[in-house]
Design a protein that fits this description.
alpha/beta, 5-stranded antiparallel sheet, 5-stranded parallel sheet, 17 strands, 20% strand
Length: 462
């Protein structure tokens, strides 16, 4: 039974732009009808500009929102990811359940305003500040679910398995104490969370943190236990993000990280390889053939000095991918897509690198591919404007000077590539409910107040 409908003069459907599109959805927020070249009754609400599917954010560490921008000073002439990580640990050791919920709520509102309508939360702070489990081991996971519900964003919750400080079973460090789980305890946590994540708008998966943090036997057992609970559950893993990680993995195993994973794990469409920045040609081709998603986070990878993912070659191999905001140095769909393309221009000395003969508009090609890949990584029905998918979408503001008077593909291109410091987004809907209108969310005032207080408490404890 239809409970909501919206008419758009232009909408980006899975097979391209369509005119005069009428969307209908049911009480669960699921699209039940998409009709192009439609004639809508005058009473049907009209979209105020080109309508696009909502973007899944496939990689997020919510608590890192609180120190975004606060590590941009030189403490070491060789500053790198590894020195940034030391600052991250200081925040991770202090955060309380209340602060985590406040920070995540603000972050998820930020995401909605940017056009993200769902998030994959790679959650690795599990225990109390002394490293002991809370009375309810799921305490911090439940805080993230509550934040997503309050903000109105869909969530794939990915509890992180973290056991060692380095390849070969190096014992964890003291400042990693809030992350550490035995495999049995992680399985128990998944069993505790599974009922919480079977409601609409939620999905449960698993995130073995990385090959350096999860020994092979633990990786195998944890993934088997997850898929015994839910055969379709997603698995996300950090891999090959930094050159040092690749070198350490080769010293441990004689193989590069992605090659090791391909040889020891049955990679398939349930897997998301986060970053995978440093791939050789064989790894690139095999990853593309596996059907796994590569999770690219251009602004974080740039901020941390990780390197540049070989996107042009990966797309040529037919690889699937999506985008994430990771450390939230930027929360912007357009900026992630823009820098994905710009990084390729800087390395190839060409323009419009990620376009193709069949898809000459860079922004449209990237946007559609990121929605598809992000939906696969989310393991939720958020793959775009199609029957059976969530009614998740954003609407560009046709009155905005950047997009006014343009054809829809040109409007999207202007939105992605013509950056003025303000967004040309008029509205954002999730599950058939309007969450953002004219840049405002209903929780703006209270969420900002709670976030500022939470960040102040963390900084005061520094």
């Amino acid at each position: 039974m239809t409970t909501g409908e919206l008419f758009a003069s232009d909408a980006l459907l899975p097979d391209g732009w369509a005119r005069d599109v009428l969307l209908r959805w049911d009480a669960a927020g699921t699209l039940c009808s998409i009709e192009a070249d439609a004639q809508a009754d005058a009473a049907v609400p009209r979209a105020p500009g080109p309508l696009l599917p909502g973007m899944p954010n496939l990689h997020s560490h919510a608590f890192q929102r609180a120190f975004a921008g606060l590590t941009e000073f030189r403490g070491n002439p060789q500053d790198s990811f590894w020195s940034w990580r030391a600052e991250m640990y200081r925040f991770a050791l202090r955060i309380s359940p209340e602060a985590l919920q406040a920070i995540a709520t603000q972050l998820y509102i930020d995401m909605l305003k940017a056009g993200y309508t769902s998030v994959c939360e790679f959650h690795y702070v599990h225990h109390d500040t002394d490293g002991k489990p809370y009375a309810d081991a799921a305490e911090l996971s439940l805080r993230l679910l509550a934040a997503a519900q309050a903000a109105g964003i869909g969530i794939t919750l990915l509890p992180v398995l973290y056991q060692t400080a380095g390849f070969g079973g190096t014992p964890p460090l003291a400042h990693q104490r809030r992350f550490i789980h035995s495999t049995d305890r992680m399985v128990a946590l998944l069993e505790r969370l599974q009922p919480e994540c079977t409601v609409p708008g939620r999905k449960l998966g698993l995130a073995p943190h990385s090959l350096r943090a999860v020994p092979p036997d633990s990786l195998r057992l944890a993934v088997e236990a997850l898929h015994a609970l839910d055969a379709a559950a997603p698995v996300h893993i950090h891999i090959a993000e930094q050159v040092q990680e690749v070198q350490d993995c080769m010293q441990w195993s004689g193989q590069r990280p992605v090659a090791w994973l391909l040889d020891h794990v049955a990679l398939d469409k349930r897997w998301c390889l986060v970053h995978a920045t440093h791939l050789d040609d064989d790894e690139l081709a095999r990853t593309a053939a596996s059907g796994a998603i590569v999770g690219i986070c251009p602004t974080t990878e740039a901020n941390l000095g990780d390197g540049i993912f070989p996107t042009e070659r990966y797309l040529a191999a037919g690889g699937a991918w999506g985008i994430g905001s990771d450390s939230h140095i930027s929360v912007s769909v357009s900026e992630e897509l823009r820098w994905l393309e710009y990084a390729q221009r800087l390395t190839t000395l060409r323009r419009n690198v990620l376009a193709s003969e069949r898809a000459p508009q860079v922004a449209t090609r990237l946007y559609q591919a990121a929605v598809s890949g992000g939906a696969q990584a989310s393991a939720r029905a958020v793959a775009g404007l199609a029957t059976g998918q969530q009614a998740d979408f954003m609407i560009l503001d046709a009155s905005n000077a950047d997009v006014a008077g343009l054809a829809p593909d040109a409007a999207l291109s202007a939105h992605v590539f013509s950056h003025r410091g303000t967004a040309a987004i008029a509205e954002v809907w999730q599950g058939g409910k309007r969450m953002v209108q004219h840049g405002r969310h209903v929780l703006d005032a209270t969420a900002a107040r709670d976030y500022i207080a939470a960040r102040a408490s963390l900084l005061n404890e520094a």
